[in-house]
Sequence to fold (411 residues):
Amino acid sequence: MGAVTIAVRESLARARVGEPLRPEDAYPLARAEGADLWAALDVASALRDHYKGRVVTYSRKVFIPLTNLCRDTCGYCVFVKRPGDPEARTMTPEEVLAVARAGERQGCKEALFSLGDKPELKYASYRRWLRAQGYATTLAYLRAMCQRVFEETGLLPHANPGQMSEADIAMLRPYNLSMGIMLESVSLRLLRPGMPHHRCPDKVPRRRLETIAAAGRQHVAFTTGILIGIGETPEERVDSLCAIRALHATGQHIQEVIIQNFRAKPGTPMAEHPEPTLVEMLRTIAVARLLMPQMNIQAPPNLAPRDYRWYLHAGLNDWGGISPVTCDWINPEAPWPKVAELDDVCRAEGFTLRERLALYPEYVREGERWIPPALRARVAALVDETGLVRRTVEGEPLGSTQTARHQGGDS
Fold:
């Protein structure tokens, strides 16, 4: 296999003793192969064990695609539709609540709201629909739906609506346990003609970074991450992770970093674009852990159904949201694994699987700083002293969520 190269050996030595890696330290790791790669995986795994132990978490959720209209046209997306498309839809309050109640019956705790970015700025017909419902913006409608789901079911909302101003985040915060936006990449090249973010005003890196920073000022626990394989270089992956690290150093609010692999989809401009390999995913997960050793690092198992067990050996400690009710509307071709399957994989690799809320346990334990007042009693009813979902309610079809609603749903 060969010896570990000097550059990689020096970078890993810094990581082992807790010295922050500079971007130039991580660049060689982002291209590591052979002995370099195995050495990086070993150190990343050791850091995960040191900071996170051998517990791997997931959130039991429903996926609520509030609207699939969007003003952006990403080259890899099948979620977004245009008005007039038979598949274009904006969910009514009744449809939102029906999905949430189905999740409640299956023991879900999280209601993940995902939606297109500011479609009212592009489509007059949608603006008219919003006004007819009594809302000026999509985010105002989202806020109302988060409130109804919280008040009328046992679920805790997590909104992922794209670019937001600080005022938007403040408006959504009272009924969201956490929020998120994928940074995807800081590469400006991806905005050029022929690249995946061309004509996507909400994918301008500066604007997405501003959203993440604003969440920190509002004390919102936030999820973000990078999308790999869409044309960025390994060095640009490092730059994106370092940008996330810098924002977290200021706000201490980034609760997880997602490493998501691009999947080519028929009918999109990137249908023939090569997907990232398992080795690329392992490298990137390891680099994320080495750059941010105390961070929660996640990668979606449904996007690598045959390979995801290997992620555990690259420093991962979370699988993200898993739904027993709804599909992954962003990647509808990729079904979620069963929780029992995840549990079997974790056990086989020497790990313990535990359920968490949409708020990671360290933020749950800090309490009032991160949890909006209306949500505190419900969170307290669901978790144990570690901040994870109590074992007595994990996976129960009713029980915990109904009890929590009665204890905290009318705050």
Observations:
- DSSP finds 14 helices and nine strands in the chain.
- The CA atoms of residues 312 and 349 lie 8 Å apart.
- The radius of gyration is 20 Å.
